[in-house]
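Quick one:
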Amino acid sequence: MTFQDFNFNGHLLEGILSMGYTIPTPIQEMAIPIILKGQDIIACAQTGTGKTGAYLLPVLDHISKTNKHQISTLVLAPTRELAQQIDQQVEGLAYFTGISSIAVFGGGDGIAYEQQRRGIQNNVNIIIATPGRLIAHLTSGVLKLNHLTHLVLDEADRMLDMGFQDDIMKIISYLPKQRQTLLFSATMPGRIRSLAKSVLNNPASVNIAVSQPAVGIDQQIYRVHDQQKTPLLQMLLKNGSYASILIFCSRKEIVKSLARELKAARMQVSAFHSDLEQREREEILLAFKNKQLPVIIGTDALSRGIDVEGIDLVVNYDVPGDPEDYIHRIGRTARAETTGTAITFVNHRDERKLKSIEQLIDKPIRLIDVPDELAGIQQVKHEHTANKRPQRRQWGNKSRK
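Output:
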């Protein structure tokens, strides 16, 4: 199957082909015909499978064949980075159609809010928004969604994880009851299905290869003590031939501390966290995308908010608490049938998390021995704790049996 088989509007198809897309991904092949028929859908597919195109293309096709001078589509996304990326995809795909869009998100100054307000008043066709900022525009009376025909909930599981369920329901109270609702999620826990029942009308269901990393990812783990993490990371970065690297930590405080340590070791890195101004976050992502910045350190918010091809290495400095987040993190590499490496540091507290991850992906992850030159760091740790707690297992330089 090719994109020509969907019988899209000619100008839309021109935009698709100009961006180099020829063959739809599995989620696109299954979801697009359902959406083109006007049916609600609940679709589950992991990050990097093309699900943004799966809902954008049929929505753009519908708009191209109807009145273009009103707000017809609302896309809700959990983070400003994802909202901006979706807006950029609309701009590329709809380049020849005249369809307009705007990204609406918080965190900026008064000028950004005013620009968003003017864009809304100009009746763009598509609004891509984070829930909090959208509610501000709705309650101000500036934004009217009386003519809305499509509601898209993108990364619905992440929005619920971030506590947006009440905001989502409040937004929906402003929308026409007669609309097409499209829910896309990387995971499908019970609360997502409960949300779907309350906001979708007799939806079709599509499920594509959930919770399995891309086959091109070389997954590795190192068993380490906390004191070994940073020296080991420095060794891997200095000795490896990686040009584009993402490092994930569990908290922004660790992100900031690790960035300082790596910069002190004369490494070119940037910390990506919520304390940065929006302009700073955009500059970091742009530099990384343009290969001017080799390393970004961030939390799980980054795993859903970055869409960059050619990432060579993902490092889990801390093991994620949710096995699904492991999938999203390492899914930043080996995209579009390329290859990549994913390395995870596992301390003694994270062994249970590792077991849950291996159960989810249904295979053990290859263990790599910590280099001998780091064993001294382990010995310092051992001597410090020897009188406090017996060591049940060997960590830092022994393989699993």
